[in-house]
Amino acid sequence: MKLLFFLLSTLSFAQTYSILNEDNKDVSYRGLAFESATTFIVSGSKNTIGKTTDGGKTFKWISPTVVQNRDFRDIEVLSKDNYITLGIDAPAYILQTIDGGKNWKKVYENTQKGIFLDAMYVDSKNKKVYVIGDPIETSKPFVLTASTTDLTKWTINNSLLNQGVRLKNPKEAFFASSGSNIYADANQVMIVSGGAESNLYRYTTKGGQLYTLQKSNATTAGINGMAYDAINNVGYLVGGDYTKPMDSKYNLYKFKIDSKNQLQFIDSWKYPDGYKSGVTILSKDKVVVCGYSGVDYSVDGGHNWKNITKDSYNTCLASPDKKYVILVGNKGKIGKINF
Fold first, then answer.
1. What letter would DSSP give residue 121?
2. Is 257 in contact with 264 (CB distance < 8 Å)?
3. Which of 68, 254, 255, 287 is most buried, with most CB under 10 Å away?
4. Is 3-338 CATH 2.130.10.10?
5. Cβ neighbours of residue 13 under 8 Å, at least 6 residues apart?
6. On the CB side of 1, how many CA atoms lie within 13 Å of its CA?
7. What is this structure's pTM?
8. How crowded is residue 19: how many other Cβ atoms within 10 Å of its Cβ?
9. Quick one: pLDDT band at residue 15, thresholds 50, 70, 90?
10. Phi, psi of 83 (to 5 degrees)
11. SS3 state of residue 20
């Protein structure tokens, strides 16, 4: 295990970054979810799912036999030993296990031409699963929903919270880079796009909202990931151009929801380095972002950033107790930052 120690000058204590695992060097991980402070699961290419119950010291590797050679771009925890994972395309699948990964079954299958599922979000409080996919019909995002109590019944949605769903630009789509371009709670659903344009779509019980985001002209650019902390009313969007990993242009947006139920964007003084695909919020002012360009950390609400490592990662997620962040990436790399 490689171990690097570093001190951020703005903190009175050190963080430690370590590489936990590189067993599967031919696998790209993008899915990541916590069951508890010590149990988390990862998912990736080549039908690979990994589970640890000791905070990442050891992993059990799982390959569901009900499908073959899938790229599991996202994975979510519904309850103890109850997980779902997303096989993105050709055909697209959603699999479920209720015994901690020992056995899996198909709960959704789509063989439709052009199907490509990008991300899932579980609203555990309201017992609902949301899935976002690239448009099959022009200008209409592919949105699936189901109850966490019955995953045999999925609905293709033309509306969210009674607001019609459509894309501003017919060449928009969604990046399946970190499983984090959708968020939902009882009051809202937010999805964020990239490609020809990058837009944040917010659906509420009081109406739909559209926020157009700046990006470069490249169709490989836009927002890739999103995190929103409803308790502290703070959200972040991260992205850039994944073909230009060291370009920091348009790689971060911070927002809150104001008293008029509109998104208010908040300027940063500095920006993290390079393209970012994942973001996780630890507290009102502490946030971690990751991407091909490395991992960066802010303790002042995203105004200033310190680099933790130049190692490339696709997805990052804080543990339920907020004591550490797990990172997953290409070449079988799983990392950890202790706080």
1. E
2. yes
3. 287
4. yes
5. none
6. 14
7. 0.94
8. 17
9. confident
10. -125, 155
11. strand
